[in-house]
Amino acid sequence: MNNAQIAQRQSDLFPQVDGGSTPTSALQFSTSQFDGKWRESCRLRECSVSDVSAMIQKHYLHCRPAVVEVCFVAECNGEPFGMVIYSQPPRETHKRYGGPVLELARLWAKDCCPKNTETWMIAASVRLLRKSRPELVGLVSYADPSVGHSGIIYRASGWSHDGMQDEGRKTPRCDYFDKTTGKKVARFSHAKKMGIEVDRKHRTPKHRYYLPLIQKRTNVTKGLALA
């Protein structure tokens, strides 16, 4: 399939809402639960970021992560309905967990999907990463309470709450907004160079969740030492 065909397929599956009308979804979900029948029809496969560009725009952040490591698309009978994107976290994250870690940075599924769809997507992505990235010690992700996220999906997927982002940080992180337009400014230094007057607002700390992929054998070591 060439780029034009891919673009047309994404346009058909994720049409832009225009004039207040909502087109009929190309996928018809017949059950409210992601049950065994769904699992037989669905799969998660690795793809390129361009394959899910339309989905990225529908995510509440509306942009891709800065450094994408692995991208997955979820399909039902060949029709895409969701995505999972893992990115490269800051160096401090690798130090925190004692080895290479990836961040689950984008998770999205169509609103018409049955319950537990995103839980299945996360679990399926973890299984694939265990096979393709055996060097990973774990996975980390964040839930943003400023948009109503608490991390229920991560807890349902077996991830553990690991505190709040920026715990122990001496000064809180801030977001900057153009006083004239109200638009968010990426960096204060950029605004200063452009002569933009900004409002500074403290950023709401996010919930941090962690899933270990390599179990430490401390208990086994202790047992051998005691024997």
Question: What does this molecule look like?
Answer:
This protein is an alpha+beta fold. The protein has a domain at 3-11 and 29-166 and 204-214: Aminopeptidase, CATH 3.40.630.30. Helix content is 30%, strand content 27%. It has eight helices and ten strands. The protein has helices spanning 3-13, 36-41, 53-58, 91-97, 117-132, 152-156, 188-194, 218-226; strands spanning 42-47, 68-76, 79-87, 101-109, 138-143, 160-164, 174-178, 184-185, 198-202, 207-212. The strands form two sheets. Strands 1-2-3-4-5-10-6 form a seven-stranded mixed β-sheet. A three-stranded antiparallel β-sheet has the order 8-7-9. Strand 4 (101-109), helix 5 and strand 5 (138-143) form a beta-alpha-beta unit. The protein is globular, with a radius of gyration of 20 Å. The model is unreliable at 6-26 and 217-227 (pLDDT under 50).
